[in-house]
Fold each of these.
Amino acid sequence: MRRRARIDDVVSATVTLRRSGAGSLQGLCPFHEEKTPSFQVTPARGLFYCFGCGQGGDVITFVRQLNNLSFSEAVELLAAKYGVQLRYEEADRPQAPPGARVRLLAANAAAAAFFSQALNSAEAAPGRDFLVRRGFDRQAAERFGVGFAPRDGRALTRHLKSLGHSEDELLAAGLTRRGGWDYFQSRLIWPIRDAGQAVLGFGARRLFEDDRLPAKYINTPETLAYHKSQVLYGLDLARRHIGQQYRAVIVEGYTDVMACHLAGVEVAVASCGTAFGDDHARLIQRLMGGDAFHGEVVFTFDGDAAGQKAALKVFSGDARFAAQTYVAVEPGGLDPCDLRLAQGDAALRELIARREPLYRFVMRNVIGQFDLDRVDGRVAAARQAAGLITSIRDHSLIDGYIRELAAMVGMEVEEVRRVVGQAVRRPPRNQTGSRGSQTGRPTSDRPGYGNTSDRPGYDRNPSDRPGYGNTSDRPGLDRTTSDRPGADRPADPMIPGMADPGPSDGPDPDNAGGRIGSVPLPRPDDRDLGVEHDILKLMLQHPEAFTIQPPWNGVTAEDFLHPAHAAVFAAIVAQPDNMTPGWAQSVLKSLPADGLREWSVQLAVEPIPMAVEPLSPDSAGPPVAEIAAQANETATRLQLLTLQRRLAALRSTLQRVNPLSDQSRYDALFSSLLPLQAAERSLNESLQRIQGNL
């Protein structure tokens, strides 16, 4: 299939390509907004790559990403276009006829055009009136493809058959019922598209009292293309904005999506006839790409009991996201569409800007179930909130959340710390025991309470995440072990400073940083500091490998988080003649003799793992080219971590700034974000090229 379907032929159907020399073609990327072409196609290799957003692959990958298809669906689509006969080896699995999905999508596209045209008819006046009452004019209806299903009951079927579609195809697409009746009749219609603009199905709203179907909204039944657990309304319009802003806003209805987009919140999407689930979460993550951890997903809920229940359900699956989760609730109970209608576009943007962390919204509602005027009520509230505290992914923030919980329930911080720690360590019991929920339901049964077995990411070390390493909030980097609360016993890994009643009498030497004189030792379990450790080893043992300008392949003092590493690097820079014999010894001698010098010797003698073995048993060391490549890779990785820390700090500041009340600062911060993102992409590309040559 890859040989038959030429990638330049497939891509040119979507992207205008121009020759750029050396057998390559170039155009504007279809996966993100850009004004300068960065999307490159190499026909001889059958590959594409965007230097702007990092998307790349072969012709099948292109079709999959463009149309949001599975691998087999993409192959089937290409096979139908290029006349390739497919043979399915798994005969026990039911397979759709070749080309069936392509014909289904074609029928949906024709139906969407038919519905849109029908909205202009006289009988569609109630539908147009509904849109006007909701604040949408004709231009808005055209933008979102809103249409009308005629009351005739067979009009769509007749039209599609006249275009050559068979009744079996229309049944498979969910457009026709048995007997030749249209599936959608006398209803307002919204086409549901994927990220590649293909119409997967439809949503329809009741307009007339004599409608035989009582449901206010109905959707296309499950088909080859439409799976309600995997589609999001508005994705076709929001896809690029989500990728650019690293943000998605999840609303509840079609008109809410329309209102958000018209108000300038162009990252809004909605699930279709089902709750937001795992497949939806994975789809959002994919759209955010590699920077999803720094992104955010904002849910809009009503402030009533139903909204609180929905928030709890989302929170129970919060670990599905790498992005941070927030909730935006309108105090008066208005949904986004009603809010825009009543107070205007600015009010809707303000609602999203006032978002609050999902855990805080849920925690406030959980605490609200208890009588905080009573001591036992406050303690019970703290115990109930323990699961929310321990389920937060960024464990470096837990201590701050404990303080926040203490303020919410009106208790001392240390008292809350002890209560939360006890609740985490001890298995909860039901009402028949001495501890449990006031309703008699075991606390551990509640969503998000703290059951780690089904929450991926619960025990994930924050140092695993790119860019982590801000020493201001990381115990053990700028404090000795004895400085930390509860250091006389091992700290609970989930609750910073919480004493563990275990048998140990002292700190764990494997996790403690310790000190050498006035400089703290690096923590051996910190992976980001491992890159600093590796670069210093390479510098001391192979200074000749750093041949790229500026000196030391561009590594600077800013790249070192730990003071011990920074001190060694300063000593390296201060000894310029790195090609002279005994240079490493001179660097070590220049360090203060308060223990730092002795500790640094390991950097000069510790073996460097290499991907390639020495050329022969008698070789003095690894090949020169390989050690130079490894030095370049490690230096690039270190600089990338520094840049990611800067980006994380900037995005954190940006999220706290209200774009309405402080627009000038918001715009300035956003402008400074763009060059840093471009630099991050450049470093990532450099790292990929280096790794490809190793």
Amino acid sequence: MKPRLFTGLCIGLLLLLGAFGVQLSGCATDTASPNSGPSQALSGSQTPAVVVCVRGLVWSDISKNNTPTLYDLSINGSVANLASNSAWPENLKAAQPDVALYRLTAGADGDLSAVDTEVNRLLKNSPLGTRLIVAALPVTSADAPHLPLAPLIATGIGLEGYLQSSTTHRIGLLAGTDIVDYLASSKVILSAHPAPSTAERLAFLQHNVAICNAVEASREYMGWAFLTLFMLTLAVSLVLSFFEIDMNPRSTRWLVPLTRVLILVVLAYPVSTFLMFIIPPPLYALTDSTGGLTALSLFWTIMLTVIALIIGKRTLWSHSLFFLFIVTSVVILADQLLAGPLSLTGYLNYHANEGIRYYGLGNEASALLFGSWLTFSGLVVNRFPNARLTPHFKRWGFLAASALITAICAVPQIGASFGVLTWGVVGVVIAWWLFAERPLRPRFIIATICGAALLAIGVLMADLAFSPFPHMPNMDSYLQGGPLALLLGVFNEISAYSWATIVYSPPLTAIFDITVLWLFALALVKPGSYKEFWARNRGLRAVYTAGLAIIVLMCCLEDSGIFMPALYLSYLMAGFIWLVCDMHTWRSRVMQASGKHITLRELMRLALDQETYRGRFGDAPVNTAPTVTTKVVEEDEDHTR
């Protein structure tokens, strides 16, 4: 495929996916579209407030016949799901003693008749203009890692529809601290989005609760399934990466296709955990169960893998990777810009109840985004080294697009993933530097890391100093001691979480460490035929080196242990092993056509000799290599065609 044609297809695919995401974002959020904008917005005031906490309240218990008062409040007031634990009422009472706080418990089998009667009595006896908030308390213990979302109904606050706050940035989702801050001060701003009839409101919110519960119930086994598949792919890939093993062409005929299919499945699964929420309304019920979510994620994984295989078969196999990299990047970016309709919760996202404050993109999604974008960039430079637009892309196009992606990930009002400002910036600068084939000196790496760290600390300090709701509010106490105290505080917070993740599974940590050390050896020592391999794949080598730096920095700066670096590693390994598969297929074709045995090193040296001569003197001489080799070298941008 010609570069111009392929570029046009990529641009068309980007526009198509963007339009597709905008159109279906309403499906992911039902009738509450993020683009509709808040209809009203109010901050806290000094008017009287009554808070009723009901233990055991769920949306399905509210009906016109059984709970007429709560049902009427849902019609005339505003509703949301509450992400919190059992401690927020005590925090509210300590912050605002004047708030009237009542604690009620649902009867047997969810009977709310007594609760409804008491709420009706409070309404009648309260002064005009009283703000009444009815919020459920979870039935699980306060120290549970993921508590279910709880119903919240508010009236008298001048808002109607789906509530959201200036901290959660999610339609129909509030945090317990939002209620505390809203009633105790004027910091938190609550806004309401238009909502349909009461029955549809309750069904929408109940549906979101069911999604969160289903994801959490199946998260562990889905994670282990993906990890097992990734380890299998890694094991098969490492066999092919030993170039000095003179593999029989018969073995590569089935091993290479198997590896390619496994790589495509591994790359298709992460983005499928976002796309599984794009379904037509008649299939909404599938997302309410673990089996339905599993089926949807598998459907999208298989669908994307098949499309990638068709694209590779009809054009060039490297385009299969390009397709999945583009889809992953576009879906994550579009979801973030549309206020996260596909990432409220998921297998590779934060649970809706994990973060009291808005966590934005999240560690896992940022690893997927940068892994797909950087690897795609390196393979494009590799695939089109002599294209007219390639020099412009290497000089400024890559930097401009990377800066935009970094901003979407890190700006507090959009993404708030501060780790990206360090490891992401370092990776982009190293890749851009190597694209220009400049020498990578230790002092340059140190200066880049220091500059990125200062940028991240500066943005974090500005967020803490000027934002009423900073992304990392627990760092505010460290800020009083200056930048050094802030740096040490961040390090202590990260190391505590990260170490707990690392020791969770020592065998997996050991496998990850061995793999990373092997990748470092291939890049630095260049054993065997890898000197010729890297000389022929400069574009990949640039993002490969940048990726290794990113993985090391992730291990040091992020609180995800090896999980986040392992996600990034999957994209780095995919691009690297894909070219390794090309080398094995190319060698098999040459041996089959010439009837002579040839090693990978000999094949790559012949290609390098021809490329050197052709670059200096024009067309290659007739007798520099066997005829069949000359013919294949001219088409070696994708050795499988």
Amino acid sequence: MKPLNLNRLSLFMLLAAALSGGCRKDDADGLYARLAMSSDEIYFTAAAGKQDVEMYSNLKSWQLKVVYHTSNESWVDVFDNRGAEDGRFTISVSENTTEPFVRRADVCVVSGGAIYGTIHIRQEAAVPYLELDMNGMSTVSASSRECTATVKLRTNVVWKAETLGATWLTVGESTATTQTFNVSASPLTDYRSAQVRFTMVGTGNENISVMATIRQRGSATDPLLAQTVTLAEALSRLPGGVGSFTDNICAEVYVTSDRKSGNFDANKMWVQDASGKALLIQFNTPEENIYDLNSKIRLHLVDLTVLVDPVTGQKRVSGASVENMLSVEASASGVAPVAVSSLANLSDYENTLVTVSGVQYEIPMGTYVNIDESNLSSPMNPNSAALGETLSQYSHILRDGAGNSIRLLTSAYFKERFAKLIAHGSGSITGVVMKHKMLNNRLFDVMRIRSAADDAISTDETTRLTRDVVRFGPWANNSDANEVRAAAGTGTIKYSMRSNITNASTGTPSLYFAWTYARLATATVDDNNEAHPAMEGSLTMQYACINANVWLNGTGSSILDAQREPGAVRGEAWIITTSSAGVTGDMTLVFSTSSSQTGPRFFCAEWATGEGALIADWRRFYEYESVDWNSNYHAVQFSCPMPDAAKGQATLVVRLRVIGDAEARNNSGSSGPNKIASGGTNRIGYLAITEKK
């Protein structure tokens, strides 16, 4: 508990009264309070500390009161601060982080208006400090007109300010944490700068100082003289939308990214105005990005540069700082998203907040992040990430009615990553369009939502843009299954070494159920970014997938050598048998897959009208790479159009076949990439052949 502090004046009066009697109280009236201490002084370091004190007393009641001699803040705590006769109490002090001198206080034993004992408390001085408090910056911008410029400081000492040789700059008023400088009007069109210095006073550290720069704009760059234009007009002045803004212009923009959601890079901010044009602003540090979603900003553009990031391939603004944000005010709704009816030309909307209508999820299962989040801090092998979807992110494929697609990329630290189950119908989705460069240097258009509210895709499956010709998965309950059954449509899926489930991963070859790490139910995320309920290896939380081993040179394969290219590797396959009779709409193959570290990496998708067709009758229409599950901890989604010739077939067989002897981990030895191991596995979490309605 906090002690009852005694006013200094009243304590001194009490001390004076006690001493005026010329003798100790316990000598006069037989009452006493004796402290079991070798000294009546306790000395603490600057760190927080505490000490127990025993007291022997015959006082019927007593209180412990604290008086401070050198500080205006309460830094001593006594528990318990009252009692009768003998007692034991603890004196605690908080850390001295602010006072650059020894702090002094007294703890007095008081009873009946008299003091029967005093403990003198001393605490070591805090380390003196003097530093700028400007979000890592050391420069303050000033208008070309007569004005003031203020430098913010963080200190626990007395300091003095001085200008260094600039006649147009004088020292103005100050507070405990700020210093104002008076700035004369500039006759120049360009910038001029001067340094100011702050030096410690009275601490024995007068040789310690910190510098700042006052940078005054000329009339050509003064924001007070800037012309307000739209982003569309501003960008039209840059060839190809890339280059430096040289005109003294401003734009009224709104923040379209949410720095608090965890779904955007912490040091990046996206802004947009009513013209529908947008900019990505990248700050030097996350601490500089202090602007909330929907904030309205008057953005000063002169001297800023739009460039193509050499790492990410994104267009971004270079050199922006708090000085470019001339005014900031809250806004309830922000800017309206640009309405888009097709995913075909989203490259034209880079960095833009859009609402795309008439879209659906290709694989409607799980939540926004279908990943084993318990392994987010695990090391990963970047060579294994065929699509570069690292441990920290997951993407769902979105498609429109014409079959165009884009990836909805979601951070594994998005606070609403488990807030909603992926919907089965169609509808609209709102998000920021951006470029994303995978680790294999392929550049994709992606979208990021700000919150789950941006997702307005319907849960009504009848609104879906496609119908399932055949679908396998998600297998939410497989406890009694001994074969892989189609969840929709008619057909079978098997592994070329086995057609029935072994219900165990032991033995070779094996076909068995495993986990996809796609949640069956929603979950909340706490302030520590932990999900509740936590992911479990059980059917109560996760979808199942089919998993198989022995993917090369197997004995007893259903694929004959005549059904492979001459001289090709003897790779195994997932084999899907169904019918496309009556199908007239465009067909698409969609699936999610991954391999173990030593499982297969390179696959092709091919079709024929019978499982026994010779290689000349198998038509390859897609090639893909399976990621290493142990580095990515999720199954990547794939979607590819099927040839028109595959429509209207009484029997349609599709194979996902291994076409290279390289493990998914993609490590290399002295003789090249490591080979697929017999125990290496590949899994399918979902597979469907769909027809456009």
